[in-house]
TrEMBL record:
Record protein name field: MMPL family transporter
Topology class, membrane: Multi-pass membrane protein
Organism: Leucobacter triazinivorans
UniProt-listed InterPro entries: MMPL_dom (IPR004869), Mycobact_MmpL (IPR050545), SSD (IPR000731)
SSD domain residues: 250-383
Keyword hit for Transmembrane helix: yes
Highest taxon above the source species: Bacteria
Length: 792
């Protein structure tokens, strides 16, 4: 591969416009496709095969009116006055009428309102469908006399108030200070055309503001857009500064920025272009942006730094140095990128569709970063030419001695090697302590109760809790199956609801109707506590495990869905597959590093270091986001569970990036060992050669990831912090500190491998030995040719 990449680098350098035009045509094409096709981002995160998903499929076939998505708007009065009287009540009714006129909103009739909305605590008892308030045209006075429209309206309002409602679908709290409007859509929320949600929220807000009350949309009505903002620019700014300090010129530092941004633009453009075919969650493009920027900048840095090194140390021309840089550092970049792609691709083995999409989009972005670094970057180097190094930089470099250039690296590595046992014990103890909180890590999904205090979704959640109780933020949609061969009767529903209400952790239960064949009964179960409470989790499992005790009818079975149940299923499924994925990663790590370094102990050492990184990273995440330690520093004011799919995604990403640093650092030590340096000297020499660029690469990644901590989206914030902390730990504590100490302790044994195994392992030539032999042969042939010409 090194010879092929050398030739590719020379070709790209000499004919830069070939790849420049190619990549910009690709960029223009994907952006055009994304714009013309439209971008569709989904907030729905589901896992096929879970119990909640099976119930959703039943609802779609048996209860089509409830198969669409739901949204909730909460009305409150800033002054604490009642919202169910006077102008406030009229404004809420008017907003409901205007919202119901939307073609994608299912208008609720008065016959459905008692079943759809959960009843307040002071209701007289479960309401059977026939007990719902009658529509005005069916209301009659005494002795069958027709009443006037005004009297009909008054009777309707009285009937609604008896049920704790202001209007069909609008529930009023006991003290009248909070109104809860639930909106039923004909489609899932993520499938609604652009602008529908905005129209609904704007309509409610305008009517509320006219009378001085507040309309607060819950998280169910948040806009489905990629949570991207200016925070990425902050990370890029710091990364640019690191590049400038490492490479010594704005011209050289600008090249990785150009290639990194271009790679991300192509990757995200392609993902958006496919968003109408492949479902993208809101976190998918953000993850691709994070990883694409980080690896794109790092991979370009490795190649440009190697070219400058060859120009300064060996006096090569910029063209020859570019070719050799691609053949050596480019080989390492190609293999490093392959490791990240494999690690992300391993997530597809878990069989979770939204994780597969996230992993494949991120992997594609990494692959693009590698291809751009191997094709476009040498083209840009060709345009820059010899100006990649100024005459002053060349002169300054020549005036410095090797020891001066690497004084700190030499001193640090020597100190680590000398005190290696203290270093090993200290690092392991420190990371072990940091990992302790991981033992109490709980997984969940973001909801209004864990959002920041000033957000509308948090204000809405707090208002619902204040007016109705925590459980009203976590309703459970419950489907009860009749015993085999039997059917339900509408008159049985109140008794079933009463029986369910006697269960532990149940606040109230409301019937929602029967399926067309009367074999399924639909209920809303309101738990006593919120979505993240242990009692709610227990209630979901208790309902699903019931075989008739809770319903009072032997042989019935219960299915539970709704956002709370879906999130619970996702969290439990991901928690169960995390050990399997870590096992896959460990095995993969051992095999890959065995092939790269042709050693038995180095893969074991690298994998143990990675496990220390993962444990400490998740421990710190638990302490900050779940326990609330230092939460103000990352911009959160409410502790909550760790994002359910964060551990498995971060494990895959960190593995790929950690092995990058392992390869770049240890390959330099191996090169020093091959060239005759023994034991600790090989460790120090290899550290000196690679530490500066590894430190710069790690600083760039930490900067890029840390920039996302300032995002207002909690998912993005958690991912940014997890990756920034993980890279900080792995690069500086594991690879730069623990690895040299362990390598010095192992000595020559670090490079041992059985002879039979050495013979069958493929030679990947990461260090470019074949390229060196090829260039030596070419020089020999050139000298021979010249000698023949002179003799002739």
């Amino acid at each position: 591969m090194s010879i092929f990449l050398y030739r590719l680098g020379r070709f790209s350098y000499r004919r830069p416009w070939v790849f420049l035009i190619t990549w910009f045509l690709i960029l223009g094409s994907v952006i055009t496709l994304a714009i013309t096709g439209g971008v569709k981002i989904s907030s729905a995160i589901t896992i096929d095969g879970t119990e909640s998903q099976a119930v959703i499929e039943e609802l779609r076939s048996e209860f089509p009116d409830t198969a669409g998505g739901q949204g909730t708007i909460v009305f409150t009065s800033p002054s604490g006055e009642r919202v169910d009287e006077g102008a406030s009540a009229e404004a809420i009714r008017s907003s409901l009428t205007a919202i119901s006129a939307n073609e994608f909103v299912v208008e609720r009739s008065t016959e459905d309102l008692a079943a759809v909305m959960p009843k307040p605590e002071d209701a007289t008892g479960p309401i059977a469908p026939g007990d719902a308030p009658q529509p005005p045209e069916q209301m009659q006075g005494h002795a069958g006399q027709q009443v006037s429209p005004a009297e009909q309206e008054m009777m309707m309002q009285q009937a609604l108030r008896q049920q704790g409602m202001l209007a069909p679908g609008v529930l009023i709290s006991d003290d009248g200070t909070v109104a809860l409007m639930q909106i039923q859509f004909s489609l899932q929320v993520e499938d609604l055309p652009a602008g529908v949600i905005d129209d609904v929220v704007t309509t409610a807000t305008q009517h509320a503001e006219e009378v001085g009350i507040m309309a607060l949309p819950t998280e169910s009505l948040k806009p489905h857009e990629p949570p991207l903002g200016g925070h990425e620019a902050l990370g890029l700014l710091v990364a640019g500064l690191v590049l400038f300090l490492t490479l010594g010129s704005l011209r050289a530092a600008g090249l990785p920025l150009v290639t990194g941004v271009l790679g991300v633009a192509v990757g995200l453009g392609g993902a958006f272009a496919l968003s109408n075919t492949v479902e993208l969650t809101s976190a998918t493009p953000v993850l691709a942006l994070m990883i694409g920027l980080a690896v794109g900048l790092d991979y370009a840095l490795f190649i440009v730094n190697r070219q400058r090194h060859l120009i300064l140390r060996e006096g090569l021309s910029a063209a020859e140095a570019a070719g050799r840089a691609l053949g050596t550092a480019g080989s390492a970049v190609a293999f490093a990128g392959l490791i990240v792609v494999i690690a992300l691709g391993g997530l597809t083995l878990i069989g979770i569709s939204f994780l597969t999409t996230m992993a494949l989009v991120a992997a594609a972005t990494v692959l693009l970063a590698v291809l751009i670094a191997l094709t476009l970057l040498p083209s840009l180097l060709g345009i820059v030419g010899e100006r990649i190094l100024s005459p002053r930089a060349r002169q300054r470099q020549q005036q410095r001695s090797y020891v001066q250039r690497h004084g700190f690296a030499h001193t640090f590595a020597s100190g680590v090697v000398k005190g290696r046992w203290a270093v090993i014990i200290g690092v392991v103890a420190l990371l072990g302590v940091a990992a302790i909180p991981m033992t109490q890590m709980s997984l969940g999904m973001p909801n209004g109760s864990t959002a920041n205090l000033e957000t509308t979704e948090r204000l809405a959640s707090d208002a619902v809790t204040r007016g109705f109780g925590e459980g009203y933020n976590a309703p459970l949609i419950t489907v009860i199956h009749a015993p085999d061969g039997e059917h339900f009767d509408a008159t049985e529903l109140p008794a079933i609801a009463e029986s369910l209400e006697r269960g532990e952790s149940v606040e109230t239960v409301r019937p929602m109707g029967l399926s067309p064949d009367d074999t399924l009964a639909l209920f809303t179960v309101i738990p006593t506590e919120g979505a993240d409470a242990e009692s709610t989790t227990t209630l979901v499992h208790t309902l699903r495990a019931d075989s008739g005790d809770l319903t009072g009818i032997a042989g019935t079975t219960i299915g539970v869905t709704g956002l709370t149940a879906i999130n619970l299923d996702i969290s439990e499924k991901l928690a169960s597959v995390l050990p399997l994925y870590i096992t896959i990663i460990v095995i993969l790590s051992l095999l890959v590093l065995l092939v790269v370094f042709r050693s038995i102990l180095i893969p074991i050492k690298a994998t143990v270091g990675f496990l220390l990184t993962i444990g400490a990273t998740f421990g710190i995440m638990t302490a900050i986001f779940q326990w609330g330690w230092l939460k103000d520093l990352v911009g959160i004011d409410t502790a909550g569970p760790i994002l359910s799919f964060l551990p498995i995604m971060v494990t895959g990403i960190l593995y790929g990036l950690a092995m990058d640093y392992e390869m770049f650092l240890v390959s330099s030590m191996r090169e020093a060992h091959v060239h005759g340096h023994q034991g600790a000297q090989a460790v120090i020499r290899g550290f000196e050669q690679s530490s500066r660029v590894v430190v710069a690469a790690a600083a760039i990644m930490v900067s890029v990831f840390a920039g996302f901590i300032f995002s207002e989206d909690s998912m993005v914030k958690q991912f940014g912090l997890a990756l920034a902390v993980g890279i900080l730990i792995d690069a500086f504590l594991i690879r730069m500190t623990l690895v040299p100490a362990l390598m010095a302790t192992l000595g020559r044994a670090a490079w041992w491998t059985p002879k039979w195994l050495d013979k069958i392992l493929p030679n990947l030539d990461i260090e470019g030995d074949r390229l060196t032999d090829y260039l030596r042969t070419q020089r020999g042939l050139t000298r021979t040719h010249r000698a023949e010409q002179s003799n002739g």
